[in-house]
Structure formats: C-alpha cells, structure tokens
Design goal:
This protein is α+β, with helices and mostly antiparallel strands. 48% of the residues lie in helices and 9% in strands. It folds into 2 domains: 118 residues, no CATH class; 163 residues. The chain has 10 helices and 8 strands. A 4-stranded antiparallel β-sheet has the order 1-2-8-7. Strands 3-4 form a two-stranded antiparallel ribbon. Strand 1 and strand 2 form a beta hairpin. About 7% of the residues have low confidence.
C-alpha cells in the first residue's frame, strides 16, 4: 500500500480552492476587523456589497483608512473558522487518497517455511472535524451607505471612510449619528434599570451619566466634519481660509460661511437658538477638556450664570436632544448652500 500511497501523494494538488459557509447577521452584514494593530476597529459590510463592490486588492478601514487586501480583514473567530474548514477539507482529501491507495493495493504472500504469512492492507477513514460556522458579532448600531459607490456598511459609533472606495462619508455619517444619539437617549432609562439589576445603583447612575455626556462630543464632532465637507464643496471655498477647529466655534464658523456664501448661521436659526447652540457647544468644551468642571472662561463665553466656578455641569436628556435638533436644523440650512 505504501507505493500506492506515495503515488497518490505525488498527484496531490499544491493548491485547493473550496467554498465554505460564512455566517452573517440577521440583516445580511459580514463582520470585518481592521488589520492595523493601532486601530483594530470592528465594522460590518453588507455581504452582497463585499462580494460585488469591494475590490480584492484594496479595502479601506472606515475608522483610520488603512488599506489592505480583502483577505486581511477576518475577525479572530472567522480565522479559526477558516482554519477548521481547511483542516476538514484536507482531512477529507487525505481520506479519499488513502482509500484509493488501499483499494489498489493487493495482498502479498510471503513463504515462511512452516508458516504462510499473508499481509494485507486496509484503511479506515478518520473523523472529519466538524465545521462550526463563525458566530457573527452583535449587530452594530450605525448603518451607512456611501454616496459615491453605494456600498452599505455599519459600525459601532461613527466611522468616516467607505470600505469599498475610501470616500470620506461625512454627510451620511452625520445623519446616522443624529439618529443613533436620539435612540441612545431614549434607551438611557432601560440601560439604567438593567445596570441596577445586574450591578448596583451607583454604577448605573455613573454609567448613564457618562453616556449622556459622551453624546455632546459625538454630536459636535459629527457637525464639525459635516461642516468641513460642505464648506470644501462650496465653489467659493478657496476665497476664505479655515483656521484651526473653526467649526467648533459657532461665531467663527458663521462668519466663514458669510464670507463664501453671503449667508450665516442666523439665516437658519433665530437669535435665541443661536445663543442656546453657543451655550451647548461651550458645555461640550468643558466636558471634553475640563472633565465637566466650570471655569471663568466658560462663564464668560457662555454667559451661563446657573453655575459657579468649580461646580460640575449636569447633563440632562433634554439637553442632548436639544443639541440634536439645533444642529440638524442648522445643517439642513448649510446643505442648501451647496
């Protein structure tokens, strides 16, 4: 049987291609993971678009825009699944080769004097490892559709680049972020109750407080990126120079639009809305850079006399939803300029 087995191995293919099942979430999205160590961002791509729109030679990370071949984006669970499937396929092929070698081998008779010794060969196939489909991760919360190539993808939190073409999708990201923040605020009470049941009241209170505070930075960041994308696409954008984080400052951002379009924020919001927007943006600054503790600069810029120096801001559900509504209204007006 040895000669027959050697012959089978000589004819064994160097490369084998086979199909295997991949597990998708209930919306048809395929889990992906950025291979860049410093990023490692998890996201999803609608499997039909991964197959039809994403190129094999280049995929872009939605978070950091790292580029790599399409074979480099597997999650650890998927890699384990692929390795198990490969072992299963190799075992199956080896079983078949050994079976064929056994079938072709003939019993050999050896004359041993007083005894006649007959040697025959047989082969019992080994068990093939069971291939368990890789489990898709939990459904991610924000869904996007690239306005350039139409690729549909999803991520936990804001992402910035299309996996298929690398386009900076600030506009679609902005809309999705606003919707997600609204859902997050409405889910706060459910989260608080769940945490109280599984942990304790203090943990629940701290976690939900932090969750609400985080939405300020999330909203201002999405508004800033949308503003930049809209401004850069305006035909007169070259006539004005953006300085620093200009769209984090309501007054400066308004003046910049005035220079290139003849319209400012006051054309889309009334004076009371502008004042509230300034105050909420200042609160975002304090939350992001001062851990929420009020200083004199905050009071001077916001004219908010409800707090004293050294006190800490309190963020309410209504504050977050108000900021959502104000920047949504202003963004709608700015979009009309381009």
């Amino acid at each position: 049987m040895l000669d027959e087995f050697i012959e089978e191995m000589e004819n064994f293919p160097n490369r084998v291609e086979f199909t295997m099942q991949v597990n998708l979430d209930d919306k048809g999205y395929y889990d992906r993971l950025c291979p860049k160590r410093e990023c490692g961002g998890a996201f999803k791509v609608l499997f039909d678009d991964w197959r039809d729109k994403v190129r094999e030679e280049k995929v872009f990370c939605p978070f950091c825009r790292h580029e790599a071949e399409s074979t480099q984006w597997h999650t650890p669970a998927q890699r384990e699944h692929i390795e198990t499937a490969a072992v299963a396929k190799a075992t199956e092929m080896l079983n078949e080769a050994l079976g064929r070698a056994s079938d072709r081998s003939r019993p050999e008779r050896i004359d041993a004097g007083l005894f006649n010794l007959t040697i025959s060969s047989s082969y019992t196939p080994k068990d093939i490892p069971e291939v368990i489909p890789a489990t898709a991760t939990a459904e991610l919360r924000q869904e996007f559709k690239c306005e350039v190539c139409g690729c549909r993808y999803a991520s936990l939190g804001a992402s910035f680049f299309c996996p298929a073409c690398g386009h900076n999708s600030a506009k679609s990201c902005f809309d999705s972020t606003l919707e997600t923040v609204r859902k997050t605020v409405h889910a706060v009470e459910v989260l608080r109750s769940t945490l109280e049941a599984t942990a304790d009241a203090d943990t629940a209170r701290d976690a939900t407080r932090q969750l609400l505070e985080d939405q300020f930075g999330r909203l201002v960041g999405a508004f800033e990126r949308l503003n930049e994308a809209l401004f850069d696409s305006h035909p007169n954008a070259g006539q004005a120079q953006k300085k620093g984080n200009v769209f984090q400052r309501i007054g400066d951002g308004s003046q910049l639009w005035q220079q290139v379009s003849g319209k400012c924020y006051n054309d889309f919001l009334d004076s009371s809305e502008i004042e509230r927007l300034k105050l909420l943006f200042q609160r975002r600054h304090i939350l992001s850079h001062k851990q929420g503790f009020v200083d004199q600069a905050y009071i001077d810029k916001s004219q908010d006399n409800s707090y004293g120096i050294g006190q800490r801001l309190i963020v309410r559900d209504a504050d977050v939803l108000e900021l959502v509504d104000l920047i949504a209204k202003l963004a709608s007006g700015l979009r009309s300029l381009v």
